[in-house]
Amino acid sequence: MLTITPIPAFNDNYIWLISLEQTHYVVDPGDAKVVIKHLKQLNIQLNGILITHHHYDHTGGIAELQQQYQNKLPVYGPDNEAIDGITHPISVGDDKISLPLSQHEVKIFHLPGHTLGHIAYLIDGHLFCGDTLFSGGCGRLFEGTPQQMLDSLTQLSQLDGATQIYPAHEYTQANLRFALVVEPENPQLQAYSYKVQQLRTKQQATLPSTIAQENAINPFLRADSPAIWQKLTTHFQQPIADKQTSFTLLRQWKDNF
User: Fold this and answer.
1) DSSP 169
2) Alpha carbon of 151 to those of 155, 210, 212, 219: distances in Å?
3) pLDDT number for residue 251
């Protein structure tokens, strides 16, 4: 059975440590020092690295971790982004890889939007989604189009509801402040916001969330909601005729929120 532990980094990053018995991988190690410190505290050795996209707060620790492990670590990541240190490139046509973390093949999702080559890893019901899907939100569109991000999020929204999601940032509380403006009458969102507030008061992680939870409360997965369309119509003073327009305006609103 997988054990998944957040290693906090920088202001709000999580580097996820995935463990199965004596095998240990990290996801998006932007900071090698916090990873090395955590591994030493547990007296365990790192066996590999998974990368979702090229941003430095997700990749900056690769070289130092390789140095620590005599350049023997397998490093998986997208082959169409400029990432130094990838040893096992994943191409757009690759939808599965084998990892020693699971008896089953690991499913790869290609999720352009935040960046053009962004990928996610689904390992035995645990989705490591980088900066594409956050609890209560989604990543900014640094490279992709609104339609690409909407398509990427739609892929994820259709996963089994029990799928646990592990985004790379603790953005939940800020995301929910926006979500409550956009859909204030959503009772599940209200209840979730209260739960998140209690966790953050205790400085506890709000993650993982689940696909079912996000489908119920995340405005970017709910861009076809009539209540959200009504709010957007009022805010932007224009009628909303389709889900893509709704999503595009939601992202624009959030960028300036």
Assistant:
1) B
2) 6, 19, 18, 15
3) 98
